[in-house]
Design goal:
Blueprint lengths: L3 E2 L10 H9 L11 H14 L3 E5 L2 H12 L5 E5 L3 H4 L4 H6 L2 E5 L8 H7 L11 E7 L10 H13 L4 E4 L3 H8 L3 H5 L4 E5 L10 E5 L1 H13 L8 H14 L3 H16 L4 E2 L9 E6 L5 H10 L2 E2 L7 E5 L6 H18 L1
Parallel strand pairs: 1-11, 3-4, 3-5, 5-6, 6-7
Antiparallel strand pairs: 2-8, 7-8, 9-10, 10-12
Helix pairs in contact: 1-11, 2-11, 3-10, 6-7, 12-14, 13-14
This protein binds pyridoxal-5'-phosphate.
The site of pyridoxal-5'-phosphate (PLP) has 12 residues, from helix 3.
């Protein structure tokens, strides 16, 4: 069966152009600095992300943890949102790899109040205090929300007042730029370093980029080796990353439009609570009424060849990507409609 997989944008398969690029990739030993395809990806990524240099890393998780390791000293404090990926979904790596302490602040749907950040920056020489080593932002947030540029700018001003660097978890930064209708560099200008996933909506099979100043990336290259991320003929997996940046970063508006179309249909169904204004990127979040027979709904989706994650705490998430067409969205909405109007 040809599955329609809407669990995440991580499920995307490489495009035919990516497979061809992998086949044709010129490779070398990248630990020696000999892989021209990796070098090309890193140069392209640095340019597109508006930074001096970039480093190819195996995963987004790796890139974030490498950023913490490179920016911070052991025992430093990192200020970040209580619902961010680094806190929730990176296996506590910050304590193990960089040896830092995470100081969370309440996030308002992914947005951190710059004043709340400033209030937590350690000031003075009190030997009791950890040093504030870093501020981390996430844009787009993995809850599907985009952080407005003025909030990013104000956070930058706070960081500059206290000489604290800013790392941006930009796993979906191209989705954020697409939503804001701006160049991705208008977002990344407010961060010292940025991590961007090639393997989500951009559809590369593996890989992420960490970008920053030339000096920062030189140090990160050492840290990547320490973390076991020195890869050899990595051009084979860097080649689809080049295609991801060149061909896929500009088409995300399609995924966003499909998500909005799906949201409009789902919002009209009985037993569904959905705020259409919350659909900013390729993610549709909605609540199901207690009366909805979730098992029957999940069975109906599976029977129709749809892979979807079941609701968690009553919330369900559907994600669009290049392998979900406008017609697929209508078909998916039809399955929901049949299941919910029969059984809600
Ligand atoms: C997916 C994601 C990551 C991690 O990326 P992996 O490649 O899955 O390790 C980091 N941050 C955010 C916000 C993400 O959505």
């Amino acid at each position: 069966m040809q599955w329609l997989d809407v669990r995440s944008d991580t499920v995307t398969q490489p495009t035919p152009a990516m497979r061809e690029a992998m086949f044709a990739a010129v490779v070398g030993d990248d630990v020696y600095g000999d892989d021209p395809t990796v070098a090309e990806l890193e140069a392209l990524g640095a340019r597109m992300l508006g930074k001096e240099a970039a480093l190819f890393v195996p995963t987004g998780n790796f890139g974030n943890q490498l950023a913490l390791l490179t920016h911070c000293r052991r025992g430093d404090e990192v200020i970040l949102g209580d619902d961010c990926h680094i806190v929730w979904h990176e296996t506590g790596g910050a304590a193990v790899i960089a040896g830092v302490q995470l100081r969370t602040i309440e996030s308002e749907l992914g947005v951190l109040d710059p004043r709340a950040i400033e209030a937590r920056i350690r000031v003075g020489e009190d030997i009791h205090f950890p040093r504030t080593g870093l501020i981390c932002l996430e844009n787009a947030h993995s809850n599907g929300r985009v952080i407005p540029l003025d909030v990013m700018a104000e956070t930058r001003r706070v960081a500059d007042r206290h000489s604290v660097p800013v790392h941006l978890d930009g796993a979906r930064v191209f989705n954020a730029a697409t939503h804001l209708g701006c160049d991705v560099r208008e977002i990344t200008q407010y961060a010292d370093s940025v991590m961007c996933c090639l393997s989500k909506g951009l559809a590369a099979p593996v890989g992420s980029l960490l970008a920053g100043s030339r000096d920062f990336i030189a140090r990160a290259r050492r840290g990547r080796k320490l973390m076991g991320g020195g890869m050899r003929q990595a051009g084979v997996i860097a080649a689809p990353g080049i295609v991801a940046l060149r061909q896929m970063s500009g088409r995300l508006a399609e995924d966003h439009a499909n998500a909005r179309a799906l949201a409009a249909r789902l919002a009209a169904l009985p037993g569904v609570w959905l705020d259409e204004a919350s659909v900013q990127i390729n993610m549709v979040w909605f609540r199901l009424a207690d009366s909805v027979d979730v098992t029957a709904l999940m069975d109906a989706l599976a029977d129709a060849g749809v892979k979807a994650n079941p609701p968690e705490d009553g919330w369900m998430r559907v994600v669009t990507h290049w392998q979900v067409s406008a017609a697929d969205v209508e078909r998916l909405a039809d399955v929901f409609e049949a299941a919910l109007t029969d059984r809600a």
